[in-house]
Amino acid sequence: MTFEIRPATGADRDGVVVLHKAAAVTPGALARAPEEVTLAYGDYAIASDICLVAVEADATVVGEIHASRETVALFAHVLGGLTVAVHPERQGRGIGSKLFKALIAWARTQDPAILRIELAAGAGNPGAIRLYERLGFKHEGRQVARGRLPDGRFEDDILMGMLL
Question: pTM value?
Answer without folding.
Answer: 0.97
